[in-house]
Amino acid sequence: MTSSYLTPKVFLGEYKGDHSLVVYSSKGVDWYNVHPNLEKVLKSIYADDILDLSLGCDGRFYIKYSSGLTVEQRLTQGIWEEIQPQLQGRLRRVSKLSLGFGDEIWAVSGEQEARHFLRARDRVLEIVQPSDSPHPAVNDIEFIAFGCCKDDFIIKIKGEVSVGNWESPSMSGIRPAQVNQIVAAALSPVDDSHYFILFNDGSYRAELHRVLKKIVKRHMKTMTSLLYNEREETVETRVEPVPNPFDGLLMGPIFMTPALSSSSSTELKLLDFQDSSYWRIRQLFENGWMHPWKMRPEIQHIYEIQLPEHLARSYLNYR
Q1: CA distances, 140 to each of 18, 123, 159 (Å)
Q2: How many beta carbons lie within 10 A of that of residue 173, not counting itself?
Q3: What is the tens place of the pLDDT at every residue in 196-212?
Q4: How far apart are CA 179 and CA 150, in angstroms?
Q5: Which of 44, 145, 193, 267 has a C-alpha 20 to 30 A away from that of 160?
Q6: What are the φ/ψ torsions at residue 79 (nearest 5 degrees)?
Q7: Which alpha helices (H) appear in 70-169, and where do they start and end?
């Protein structure tokens, strides 16, 4: 269960001719047009269970996640066939994995003495497997994002960001002095017009089609209104760190003064994600799910019942 602030993470891929997307943060996990096997996993876990994730073309995916006291890994059959000879048939040896265009793949095993298995562009090899210096340790590699072109990639190792193509749309408007402030990046493996860049001050730049943009927006708490270009595709905004929504909440029944309806009849009000009542009710539901054989359903919306004044008065007198 997500119980602390998680930096939003976005992943882009392709499946059946359309973009795929997975995004997770303190607000949960959302996805669009992913492989059915990945969707099955995502439905069964929380955001803070995810340890590593990557999307590629043709529905290719890799996910590493916590399951109780164990760590589980899932991936498409084609990827496993490509990497298992080097891993001696042991998937648990994989520490991190990134997918790119076509059958492009980067996988690494080990911790300090990292072993890399790549079918990737030469310039990426020069960065993760330098010939004139020791290879970076697994824990020093913060992320590798592959784009659709051979020069389109973003890699961060030990706080240093390497950019493949400064002329790509994802880098437009970003100054060299800002590049090391990038904390997360997602590039599309099928075209350079879709991307997501997150900076350490909470600002982000994204160009996504409308459906993907709507999904990502749910995970971003904005300080100001979103700014769009004339195509209403590029998004530039600032994200405030989202505090743990469960801090200070007490378990137990909720007794509140009923909300009053402006009319003479009972009404329903949709609670916003930022409403403290929303998170309190959600916590009670999630912590109180006790059915041993049924998966807890995901909350989509929570509504507040607003009573007309005469019914509210009767309720308060009863209490």
Answers
A1: 33, 18, 8
A2: 10
A3: 999 988 888 899 988 99
A4: 20
A5: 193
A6: -65, -40
A7: 77-83, 122-128
Global confidence as pTM = 0.67
The structure tokens listed for 217 are 């927006």
Taking the CB of residue 209, how many other CB atoms lie within 10 A of it?
14
Each residue of 248-307: pLDDT tens digit?
Answer: 444 344 445 555 556 667 778 888 766 667 777 877 777 777 665 566 777 878 888 877
Which whole-number Å values give the CA distances from 146 to 65, 126, 190, 195, in the listed order?
22, 15, 10, 11
3 vs 218, 243, 310, CA distance in Å? 18, 10, 39
- How is residue 123 written in tokens? 């310039």
Distance (Å, whole) CA 220 – CA 27: 9
3-class DSSP assignment, residue 162:
strand
